[in-house]
Amino acid sequence: MSNIAVVFWSGTGNTEAMANAVAEGATAKGAEVKVVPAVDFAAANVADFDAIAFGCPAMGAEELEEGEFQPMWDDVKPELADKKIALFGSYDWGTGEWMDTWREDAEDAGANVVDTVIANNEPDDDALSACSELGGSLA
Fold it and tell me: What are phi and psi of 120, to 5 degrees?
C-alpha cells in the first residue's frame, strides 16, 4: 500500500474540493492518504510519503499563493528529487499559465510530475473526476 500526502492551500474552497477528490481517488486505489494544509507540511515530511499531490490556486499574476503555500513549496522543493508528485488547483482569470510554470519548477527540482489538473473557478464534475483519477495515478 502506498502512502500519499495531499498538501493544499485554498482561499475559496475550490482547491480544497479538488484536494478531497484527489484523496478519494487515491484511497479508492488502496492508498493510505493524509490530507494536509500547506501550513502544516515541511521538507521533513517529504520522506514519510511515497507520493505527494500539491494543490494551490493561481493568485495575483498567475503565481502560487505567497503567504503560506510558496514558503512551504520553497522548503520542500529540494527534497522532491525523484519523488512522484501531482499538481492541481483552480484559477479565475488568465489561461492557467501558473500551472505550466509550477510544473516546470517542480521538474527542474527533479520531481517526477505524474500529471496536473486545473479548474476554472469552482471545479465541475469533469474537473473533480480528473482529480480523482490524478489521486489514483499516485496510488
Answer: -85, 115
**Residues 111 and 81 sit within 8 Å (Cβ to Cβ):** yes
Checking DSSP bridges between strand 51-55 and strand 112-120, what pairing results, if any? unpaired
Query: Which of left, alpha, beta for 27 (phi over 0: left; psi -120 to 50: alpha)?
Result: alpha
CA distance 72 to 81: 16
State the pTM of this model: 0.97
Whether residue 117 contacts residue 7, with contact meaning beta carbons closer than 8 Å, is answered with: no
Find the angle CA(62)-CA(119)-CA(85) to the nearest 5 degrees: 80
Phi then psi dihedrals of residue 52, to 5 deg: -140, 135
What are the pLDDT tens digits along the chain (139 aa)? 799 999 999 999 999 999 999 999 999 999 999 999 999 999 999 999 999 999 999 998 889 999 999 999 999 999 999 899 999 999 998 888 999 999 999 999 999 999 999 999 999 999 999 999 999 999 9
Which domains, ranges and CATH numbers included, belong to the chain? 3-138 (3.40.50.360)
